[in-house]
Design a protein that fits this description.
Blueprint lengths: L4 H12 L3 E5 L4 H10 L5 E5 L14 H4 L4 E4 L5 H18 L5 E5 L6 H12 L4 E6 L5 E6 H6 L1 H11 L1 H40 L1
């Protein structure tokens, strides 16, 4: 399970009150099923694999539909070009429809990488006030929300305030450590199973 799911992604999805969500490789099946079950039935969820292939009944999101997005999640250590093109397309479509820029949750944003540089340029050039909240654990995650979007969904601002608070930072560190422990245990279990299988194979040969 994505270590950001419980402390970050799920509270943001609930508070943003989305009508349409597009996901690019950011969530596993467990999280996607939870979104479908817990959010309003009218919410459209369009999950895509990291390579862009659709995992839903919809095979494409047209330019007109992009303007109606409320939340976009992007994962997979995206590079400068991918982040720049995605953010620019979202901004142009939103302006053309007179709609607010969607909340963007971007995973894989390190201190110094192409995705970070693309975000810096976008926030400078977009021409609207954007709140940017960065989470520095587990590969880095950034949340972008315009003042217009925040004014429409006050609960979203409260979640961002919490993420920047000491309590929020402590919760994120705890979630990161729990994910590390689970990963280590899974690796140890896999090694133990492999060792048992190897011993059994050797016994058969003797």
């Amino acid at each position: 399970m994505n270590p950001f799911w419980e402390p970050v992604i799920w509270p943001l999805l609930q508070s943003a009150r989305p009508r349409r969500i597009v996901v690019f490789g950011a969530l596993g099946d467990d999280e996607l099923n939870l979104v479908r079950e817990e959010l309003d039935a009218a919410v459209e969820l369009h999950p895509f694999d990291a390579d862009g292939d659709s995992r839903s009944l919809a095979t494409d999101i047209g330019t007109a539909d992009v303007a109606l997005l409320d939340v976009t999640l992007i994962d997979g250590e995206p590079d400068w070009d991918a982040v720049s093109r995605t953010l620019e397309r979202l901004a142009v479509s939103a302006r053309g429809a007179g709609a607010p820029f969607p909340v963007v949750i971007l995973h894989g944003v390190g201190a110094l990488n192409g995705a970070t540089n693309a975000l810096d340029r976008f926030v400078t050039d977009v021409g609207v006030a954007v709140r940017r909240v960065a989470v520095s654990v587990d590969g880095g995650l950034v949340v972008l929300a315009t003042d217009d979007r925040l004014a429409r969904t006050l609960g979203l601002a409260r979640v961002l305030d919490w993420l920047e608070s000491d309590d929020g930072k402590d919760a994120l560190l705890e979630a990161s450590e729990a994910a590390r422990v689970r990963s280590t245990r899974a690796l140890d279990d896999a090694r133990d199973r492999a060792s048992v299988a190897a011993d059994g194979y050797v016994d058969l040969l003797e």
